[in-house]
Amino acid sequence: MSKQLIFKGTENYIVSDDLRNSVNISVALGRPLLIKGEPGTGKTALAESVARSLGLELIVWNIKSTTKAQDGLYVYDTVQRLYDSQFGDHDVSDIKRYIKLGKLGEAFTSEKRVVLLIDEIDKADLEFPNDLLWELDVMNFYIPETGETINAKHRPIVIITSNAEKELPDAFLRRCIFHYIDFPNEEMMEKIVYVHFPDIQKKLLREALKAFYWLRDIPGLQKKPSTSELLDWVQALAIGGIAPESITKELPFLGTLLKKNQDFELTLRQLHSRGMDGREREKDKYFRSVMRGY
Description:
The protein has 13 helices and 9 strands.
C-alpha cells in the first residue's frame, strides 16, 4: 500500500484497530468492504472518514427498496428523447445525449480515484447484489444503446453498508472484505462523545452513559437508542442544565432516546421496579403525559 492510501482515521471519527485494518486490506486488495452493524454504529460515517483521510471525493449511492443495479450504471432517458423528437430542435439521433451515468458510472469515469459508498444495500431486492457482481469484478460495463463500453479510469474504493435486514448472497459475500462494527462500549463511547462535545462536564457524561447503557440493556426494547441519539441527549442535558445526580433516577428528555410508545411503557415499568420516591412518581406522571403525545 502506498502511503497516501493508508487509512488512519480522522479526528472526528473514532476507529478501532480492527476496522482500520479492514479498510486498508480492502484498499490493498481492491475488494469492496462490506460493513454491517446495527443502526447508529457509524457505518455511513466511515465512508466519509475514509474519503477525508485519503483526500478523495466521496460518491454516495443511497439504496432504496426500488433501486435496481442498472440505476447505478446508467439511465437512458427515452422520455426526454421522445419529447425532443416532437417539440425540440435537438438531434435525437445522438443517443449519447440521453444517457446519464449513475453513481457507479460516475465513479468509473472520474478523472481521479474516488470512494464509492453503496449505502444500505440490504434495502434492495435479493437480486441486486448479484447484479452488481460482474461490474465490480471487471470494473467496466456495456451500454448497448450506444455500443460503448465504460471502463473504470481508476478502481474506486467501494464501501458497502448493510443493516442486516436480509441475508446477502454467498457469491456476493465471497467477493467482499467483511467487517462487523460492534456497538461501542462505554470507554469507546466516551471518546466519541468528547470528539463532538470536548467541553462536556465529565460527571454529567459519566451519569449519562450509565443511564444510556442501562436503557439499552432493558430486555424487549423495539428500538434501542443509538449513538446519534445519545449525542442529542447529552447535548440536551447540558443545555437544560440537568444535575448529573438526577440523570439515572429521572431520565430527563427521554423522548430524545426512545421513539416508540411500547419502549416508553417498558422503560417506565423498569423505573418502577427500581423503586421510586414521591418526586420520581411525579416525574412518572410527566413521562406518561409526554408518551401520550407520541
